[in-house]
Design a protein that fits this description.
This protein is of the alpha/beta class. The chain contains 7 helices and 7 strands.
Length: 238
């Protein structure tokens, strides 16, 4: 028997630990046989299957391991975040907008980018469709809500916030676990989460909830107030 093999090849049988991006309901096969079995689907074809023996808890996830390795290997330049803040007149931030009325959310995010740019701030808006047609063009699942899409967006946010940008995006259909993934991937920078309409998150504490029918100018005013409270936009740098 081969132990600690890195992959299962065709026709292999083995005991493995599977890690999922979000909670998944299951039962050990010795408790309920029907929900203790699973299949793995790749490219719409069954690629494997098995039975579930038990739940394995670990304080360290693959994502956390990846972040640690990434940050250790990160090749920093000579310019510090404070240097960029003094030059640009603001700190970097990743701002995620969410809401049930996605069209209204995108209008708000694009207007925020325009206002920030007009005020001489370094801001950039990226829509999820741009991600899918660019960095995510080779993804098997073409959806902004897929784990691969969220991971790519988080990795891009890490780069853009490191460059000193105020990076803005609008997402629909995401949940608390998607936000947590974005937060971890954007480490060591932080994210701000703004909801337009009802707060759809139950575990993740959002930074600002705006009424669905709020005027754009009123929304921008409240977002600017939030950015000042979070010391993203400051009156002066020493």
């Amino acid at each position: 028997m081969t132990r600690h093999k890195q992959q299962l090849d065709r026709h292999d049988v083995g005991e493995v630990i599977l890690e999922v991006a979000k909670p998944m309901a299951f039962d050990p096969v010795n408790v309920i046989e029907g929900t203790g079995r699973f299949v793995i689907v790749a490219n719409y074809e069954i690629a494997g299957g098995g039975i579930i023996l038990e739940e394995v808890r670990d304080s360290s996830t693959l994502l956390q391991d990846h972040i640690r390795e990434r940050e250790i290997a990160w090749d920093k330049g000579y310019i510090t975040p404070d240097d960029r803040g003094r030059r640009y007149g603001h700190a970097s931030k990743f701002i995620v907008f969410a809401g049930e009325e996605y069209a209204a959310v995108t209008v708000l995010t694009k207007e925020l980018e325009r206002r920030l740019f007009s005020d001489h701030h370094h801001a950039y808006y990226l829509g999820p469709d741009n991600m899918l047609s660019g960095l995510g063009s080779d993804m098997e699942v073409k959806s902004p809500q897929s784990s691969d899409s969220i991971k790519s967006l988080g990795e891009l946010a890490r780069i853009l916030t490191d460059s000193g940008q105020i990076f803005i995006t609008a997402l629909s259909g995401i949940d608390d676990y998607d936000l947590e993934m974005l937060k971890v991937l954007n480490t060591p920078a932080e994210i701000l989460v703004v909801c337009l309409g009802p707060n759809v998150f139950t575990r993740y504490g959002v930074d600002l909830v705006l009424p669905a029918d709020i005027a754009v100018d009123g929304a921008i005013t409240q977002i600017y107030k939030l950015l000042r409270e979070k010391e993203v936009i400051v009156e002066y740098y020493i």
